[in-house]
């Protein structure tokens, strides 16, 4: 009688009939099969799906033209009708405010070009006064005391440097000024044609509008034509400006002084940033950008193009620069040194004369000239003649002279700069899609008020850059847009990450489970004439 002994799931027959008995049962086949399927899913989730999802996500960012029904895709519609809330908070001179104005941007006249690679459009802007969000004293008809804007450029003719006008008229509706009204009388036009070849006989520049307002005619106006990249060929180029107002990517020479200052860089109004990579953050990822302080220093070589020319040659800040006493008695050979006295690094050099450069005085850090053309080019009825650009300056700077030295903000009583509250520009954007989440733009404007001895009242004025108002513009995503963005760049990547972990664990569970089933519950087998049952350790075989 032969005896064949089997132990567990790894057994064989003795003698000449050594036949493998490792044949899986049904449970083993099922579990191992599920394990293999989980392995395939895990490999796909780890190796391929993340990149596929990124490509799918980026494809949804591309701007595309209307479909066969004439409807814009959702992405393009949300680009042309941005799902954001924008409010401009106006603070007038003595910190009365904020007067809150809702700003609505709408892109119209959208036209896709070059097989969808570029898109042309105009951006229309509408202003709506929001009394509920304004301060208790801030109404549309609240009367404000402001510098006389119309006649600031003609100080010799001033009768009164300050006037009182309602907020709404100052900003949008326009207020009546006697000098401006007189300049538009038919007799003035007649005399100009007869005596001055069509040029105005009035010896100082005036806006070509019957009334004066800071945003005269801007409501529901557009800021000229844009041509930008749609991201079709390269998603990292989405929003790149190829042309604005027919100027290409270089603004006119009359605007600012250097090519670097006139260059149009980057994307459309901060609407886009180049997309980045996805992480597994539980919150919406964001990056913050702020304008560095040195960007507002027009006495640095790279920023001189934004410098105010100061044609009135007035030293508004005589205490600046605060140069230390000289420690040497010898006079340097200035002809040999060849210093550039227009740069702040050399102001205190013996070979230079402080802030007096080229027959006038340069301004301290923290100022930037807003070109008169830039402020008026989009309004045909409010265009200032080119020869008068330098005589109607509007100077922009961070609120409360926040980026200027103490000699500047201490020259005006009541100014208290705070870098957290008065940073001129900061914005947060989501790096995966390049979508802006919030934008804060703050700037203050001032008008030069200076002593003019040709007239009685201006002759008594101090030399000051008088703050007019500052604007705090706040833009944020609407809740539904934030939720969609959160779903696409946070929730879905988290779900994919969990799925990768789960499928990896399932691979191990199913494979180990299949092996365990085979070892613990093996399947009965028949070997030759022997009847074998794996549940027993000894089997008797009868020989006939």
TrEMBL record:
GO terms for molecular function: scavenger receptor activity. It is found in: Membrane. One of its GO terms (cellular component) is cytoplasm. InterPro entries: CD36_fam (IPR002159). The chain crosses the membrane at residues 26-49, 485-516. Keywords: Glycoprotein, Membrane, Transmembrane, Transmembrane helix. It comes from the Eukaryota. Belongs to the CD36 family. This is Scavenger receptor class B member 1. It comes from Ditylenchus dipsaci.
């Amino acid at each position: 009688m032969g005896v064949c002994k089997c132990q567990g799931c790894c057994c064989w027959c003795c003698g000449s009939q050594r036949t493998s008995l490792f044949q899986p049962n049904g449970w083993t086949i099922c579990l191992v099969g599920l394990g293999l399927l989980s392995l395939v899913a895990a490999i796909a989730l780890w190796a391929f799906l993340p990149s596929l999802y990124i490509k799918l996500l980026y494809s949804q960012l591309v701007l595309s033209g209307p479909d066969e029904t004439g409807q814009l895709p959702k992405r393009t519609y949300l680009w042309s009708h941005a799902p954001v809330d924008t409010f401009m908070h106006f603070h007038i001179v003595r910190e009365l405010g904020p007067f809150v104005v809702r700003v609505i941007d709408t892109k119209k006249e959208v036209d896709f070009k070059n097989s969808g690679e570029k898109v042309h459009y105009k951006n229309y802007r509408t202003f709506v006064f929001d009394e509920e969000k304004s301060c208790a004293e801030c109404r549309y008809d609240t009367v404000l005391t402001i510098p006389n804007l119309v006649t600031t450029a003609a100080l010799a003719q001033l009768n009164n440097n300050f006037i009182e006008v309602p907020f709404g008229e100052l900003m949008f509706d326009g207020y009546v000024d006697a000098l401006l009204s007189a300049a538009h009388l038919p007799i003035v036009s007649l005399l100009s044609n007869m005596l001055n070849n069509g040029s105005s006989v009035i010896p100082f520049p005036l806006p070509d509008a019957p009334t004066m307002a800071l945003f005269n005619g801007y409501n529901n106006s557009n800021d000229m034509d844009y041509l930008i990249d749609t991201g079709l060929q390269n998603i990292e180029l989405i929003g790149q400006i190829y042309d604005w107002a027919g100027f290409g990517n270089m603004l006119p020479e009359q605007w600012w002084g250097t090519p670097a200052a006139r260059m149009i860089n980057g994307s459309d109004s901060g609407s886009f940033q180049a997309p980045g990579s996805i992480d597994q953050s539980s919150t919406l990822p964001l990056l913050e950008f702020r304008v560095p302080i040195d960007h507002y220093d027009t006495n640095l070589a790279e920023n001189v193009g934004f410098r105010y020319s100061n044609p009135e040659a007035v030293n508004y800040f005589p205490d600046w620069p605060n140069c230390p006493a000289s420690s040497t008695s010898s006079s340097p050979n200035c002809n040999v040194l060849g210093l550039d006295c227009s740069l702040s690094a050399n102001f205190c050099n013996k070979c230079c004369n402080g802030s007096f450069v080229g027959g006038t005085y340069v301004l301290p850090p923290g100022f930037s000239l807003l070109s008169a053309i830039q402020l008026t080019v989009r309004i045909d009825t409010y265009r200032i003649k080119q020869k008068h650009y330098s005589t109607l300056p509007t100077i922009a700077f961070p609120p409360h002279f926040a980026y200027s030295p103490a000699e500047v903000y201490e020259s005006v009583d009541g100014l208290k700069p705070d870098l957290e509250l008065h940073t001129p520009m900061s914005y947060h954007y989501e790096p995966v899609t390049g979508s802006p989440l919030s934008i804060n733009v703050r700037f203050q404007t001032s008008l030069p008020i200076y002593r003019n001895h040709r007239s009685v009242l201006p002759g008594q004025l101090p030399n000051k850059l008088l703050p007019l108002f500052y604007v705090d513009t706040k833009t944020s995503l609407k809740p539904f847009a934030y939720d969609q963005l959160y779903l696409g760049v946070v929730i879905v990547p988290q779900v994919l990450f969990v799925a990768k972990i789960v499928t990896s664990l399932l691979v191990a569970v199913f494979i180990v489970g299949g092996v365990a089933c085979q070892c613990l519950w093996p399947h009965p087998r028949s070997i030759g004439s022997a009847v074998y049952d794996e549940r027993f350790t000894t089997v008797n075989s009868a020989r006939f």
